[in-house]
């Protein structure tokens, strides 16, 4: 008789959260455990992200990197448009690029946590035997990237407003739509990150590239920095199947209103329809992520991959 | 008996330049041969820069840029492969070696650290060249880029000098990274977008203010790419920052500067790292 069969309740409460059945703890205990996992993982993630340097150096790091990324697009646009930043395409590109920082941060943040803990710190096995819930722990690690990503997004937008005449009017913005879209979008991105993290549990060599590769691909297909109509017609359906496409459109509409609707790709949809599509696709991706985590988690345990290191 | 005999049979002792050469070859080997064995690495090394190329080409198409700008992006995308290689596999390499416990072995072994760095550079250059060629071919086919090389000899000279100076710079910064720990990863990460911007990976460097472009010329890829764009694109001469001849001269000077700098700095940093006990530390 195996340990797992002799102590079924232990398996349920201690680690993966992959099966809360009749023998599972009460809902309140589950919630408390999940909240503790999430809170401590967020704190841990923030420490890992930020305490490698003094606050001043970290602030410079947080400012220079996103501003440079945005400046590449600004210079490219400026050369061709000969400095005419009033074209609606400019705010379309600028805001899409700024908010896409969240996509890169959240997706790579969650999936990288698996690599970081397993290969670098060699603590993933300890996390698995601690009284925490692993998926919630991984999502918490992603939240730390959300916090650092938020600095980048705010700084990038401030830079655009102050120096590039980004047509953003604080009083005209639809803040309710903005925060609602942002909230749904962040959860959606976290769940996509969990999907990548799940796959990372089963892979070794250069698995760290997965987050970058997916974020890079979605940068092209989600219409982040150009309208989807620029893509060849046969590639556009990929963009339409991605929730990030609708999320970025909602963010643009909420902040710069009519300017964002100057492009034909999604102009036929109302805000409500876009929200509906975003929620539907987010739920679909969320369900896929949960199923994927359960499958990958089980396979990783069966194959003894939780504590595998490869000197990446 | 056999084993003791074989243990007693020492290979001929190699010293001097022969040892230097053997070390260079030995350190280049895993980069040229070993890296090709992991096919997923090659795939990601090509696909990630190619993704950036596609994104920026489509931005130019959305803005309505002239066709040659597509070529500029394809070339820039290929050159990012070299920059990434220098950044992650040269500059921060000694940090990785320290993390894995190899650095102390390098220092203990009776060979030159310059030879180790040179082997890393040569191996990385050859392996990355394969990836860069693949990016240029795929990007050119995807977006029908037109090339019109005006002077093959100058093109070869520019590319060779740019690579020598770039990897020389990588060797020099590798010694600085000897003293770093966790921050090495973040500093390498930081040296991506700002360098893409300053060196004009995706647009002609002439578009930046003169003094900014001049300052960015300390990175060999800035003038290397500018000269190559002048030499391979029909309208390249219009966007040149300096003349090709001047850029070749500056690249030669940078080669000397970085290779000599690498030698001096490595000696100094190695002593400093030994004195401060940083060769085996692991501050994760």
Question: Could you please describe the fold and organization of this structure?
Answer:
The complex is a heterodimer of chains A (312) and B (284). Chain A is mostly helical and 312 residues long. Chain A has one domain (28-302). Chain A is 71% helix and 0% strand. In chain A, helix 4 (55-81) packs antiparallel against helix 5 (89-120), helix 4 crosses helix 7 (134-163) and helix 5 runs parallel beside helix 8 (175-202). In chain A, 43% of the residues are buried. Chain B has one domain (16-275). Chain B has 284 residues and is mainly α. The radius of gyration of chain B is 21 Å and the shape is elongated. The mean pLDDT of chain B is 86. Chain B contains 13 helices and no strands. Chain B is 76% helix and 0% strand. The chains are: A mainly alpha (312), B mainly alpha (284). The A-B interface holds A 52-53, 61, 64-66, 68-69, 71-73, 75-81, 89, 93, 120-121, 205-206, 209, 212-213, 216-217, 219-220, 225-227, 230-231, 311 and B 38, 40-41, 44, 47-48, 51-52, 54-56, 58-65, 69, 100, 182-183, 186, 189-190, 192-194, 196-197, 201-204, 207-208, 284.
